[in-house]
Amino acid sequence: MGSPSLLLIITLVLGFSFATYNLVTMVMHNRSISKLMVDDSDGGMFFDPVIEMPESVKKTKNAKLPFHVALTATDAPYSKWQCRIMYYWYKKQKDMPRSEMGGFTRILHSGSPDNLMDEIPTVVVDPLPAGLDRGYIVLNRPWAFVQWLEKATIEEDYILMAEPDHIFVTPLPNLAQGGYPAAFPFFYIKPVENEKLLRKFFPDEMGSVTNIDPIGNSPVIIKKDLLEKIAPTWMNVSLKMKDDPETDKAFGWVLEMYAYAVASALHGVQHILRKDFMLQPPWDLEIGKRFIIHYTYGCDFNMKGKLTYGKIGEWRFDKRSFLQGPPPRNLPLPPPGVPESVVTLVKMVNQATANIPNWDAE
């Protein structure tokens, strides 16, 4: 049999090289995909919007990176009692193992001091000029942060933007990674589905609307210097969205959330999405390894422990039942069969109200 031709040898070599390249490419692609995914606390996987996070910003756990807890609030009774419960649980969790909580500030955007100044560390800032929020009180939030960042001395390099209806159910570490803030992904913030509206505020030259994260401003842990850049843009985008009738109608009560997401993207900031950051009863059934309870939804159940879905239940807990003053101490616990998340929420509210002095004061 004759020797193989030179052409055949070259063909075999090239074919082997091409196959090897494809194999290496597949391995590298799979490794790259794995970096886009972050384990949540329940063992699930979800895509992280941060592409190829540099190793240099991955935080080692040898040293704590404390963050300042900041929430915006009004002087209305409804806001006050939530802030008192929130601050109670902050103090309980702050010095626990794994916690990286630093200082605390209630940013009071009512323009004048109230009767909680001695109970909760507070900085008073101005509300928006009369009529500018048009009844959408949350529009004051970005303006409040702009003022606070300008006037306050904040020792920590990171800030957690929180809300009065948050309860720290477990000690919260710093979930941010250097220049990549950490945020909770909200299922109802849908940039792709709202591209036509968002292009009014996020022009084509800024890239795909997928650069806008499905988040609001809270909960978010972010470096202070990044927030100082984003906050004025967040305020301006919020006001522009409110001034646009089509956007205002479409986004409604989540308008300011979209504004924060757009403002971040305008500054090229992407967030690490952490589904374990927060749970929202009654839809999230278990606490698991999550860090914050957000009690924004009403919890209505019949006495068999079943949700009544839009109907007032025989047993209920809804923060909106207490618009004019705080809930009473020792709220009745839910009936058997109600999810753990709801039971834990009511027990934590009861513990706080039992231990906060002068609870009934407005």
TrEMBL record:
Key word Transferase present: yes
TM region positions: 6-27
GO terms under cellular component: membrane
Chief site of localization: membrane
Localization of this protein: Membrane
Domain Hydroxyproline O-arabinosyltransferase-like: 67-360
Entry membrane topology: Single-pass membrane protein
The entry's keywords: Glycosyltransferase, Membrane, Transferase, Transmembrane, Transmembrane helix
Matching InterPro entries: HPAT-like, HPAT/SRGT1-like
Pfam families listed in its UniProt record: HPAT
Molecular function, one GO term: glycosyltransferase activity
Listed name of the protein: Detected protein of confused Function
Gene source species: Hibiscus syriacus
Organismal lineage: Eukaryota, Viridiplantae, Streptophyta, Embryophyta, Tracheophyta
